[in-house]
């Protein structure tokens, strides 16, 4: 269960960074938009877990774990590369109102939940415990968006998250080999 909690934290910490970037740009994310972002992220994670279950009916669990582990490792390395390149964050304030509307939050939540989707697919080996992951993604995304307004974000969290995703993928690949 601790592993699922750590994966959920790692997959959602980018919502804190995005929240801080928006705070710095004086773009407001109202509570309904934060709720929508969190719900979309959680639903995406749930769809991923269900998709992983469906795949386990067709493919061997070891193949799903290998794919999931590879994707996690690649995501982690990609995240490290993006940190190094200092890529700009996408602006989801499409109407330039300096406020994220609920409809913009749906798109924002979808994009922010890509990490959660990839992680969710690979959780098939955890059985019913995997269903805790979408709930944690929802809670952590909301918490990070709220914390972004209150607590300073340290860049080290980006590195920790990226390294953890990479290590989680490698660990998942090694567990298959044993």
In short:
The chain has 178 residues and is an all-alpha fold.
Write the layout of secondary structure elements.
Blueprint (H helix, E strand, L loop, with lengths): L1 H11 L1 H11 L6 H28 L2 H25 L16 H11 L1 H8 L10 H19 L5 H22 L1
Helix pairs in contact: 1-6, 1-7, 1-8, 2-7, 3-5, 3-6, 3-7, 4-6, 4-8
Provide structural commentary.
- The protein is mainly α.
- The protein is built from 8 helices and no strands.
- The protein has helices at 2-12, 14-24, 31-58, 61-85, 102-112, 114-121, 132-150, 156-177.
- It is globular.
- The two termini are 21 Å apart.
- The model has no long low-confidence stretch (mean pLDDT 81).
Biggest sheet record: none
Output mean pLDDT.
81
> Radius of gyration over alpha carbons?
16 Å
How many helical stretches?
8
Beta percentage is under 5%
- Estimated helix fraction: over 70%
**Which regions have little confidence, pLDDT < 50, spanning 5+ residues?**
none
Q: Quick one: how many beta strands?
A: 0
Spell out the helices and strands N to C.
Answer: HHHHHHHH
What is the end-to-end distance? 21 Å
What's the shape?
globular
Alpha-beta classification: mainly alpha
């Amino acid at each position: 269960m601790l592993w699922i909690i750590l994966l959920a934290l790692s997959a959602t910490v980018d919502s804190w960074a995005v929240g801080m970037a928006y705070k710095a740009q004086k773009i407001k994310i109202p509570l309904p938009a934060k709720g929508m972002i969190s719900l979309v992220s959680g639903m995406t994670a749930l769809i991923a877990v269900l998709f992983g279950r469906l795949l386990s009916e067709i493919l061997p669990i070891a193949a799903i774990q290998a794919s999931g582990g590879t994707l996690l490792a690649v995501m982690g390395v990609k995240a490290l590369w993006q940190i190094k390149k200092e890529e700009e964050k996408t602006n989801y304030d499409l109407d330039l109102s300096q406020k994220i509307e609920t409809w913009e939050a749906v798109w924002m939540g979808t994009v922010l939940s890509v990490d959660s989707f990839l992680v969710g697919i690979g959780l098939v080996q955890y059985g019913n415990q995997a269903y805790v992951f979408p709930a944690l993604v929802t809670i952590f995304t909301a918490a990070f968006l709220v914390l972004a307004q209150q607590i300073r974000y340290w860049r080290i969290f980006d590195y920790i998250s990226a390294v953890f995703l990479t290590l989680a993928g490698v660990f998942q690949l090694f567990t298959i080999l044993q």
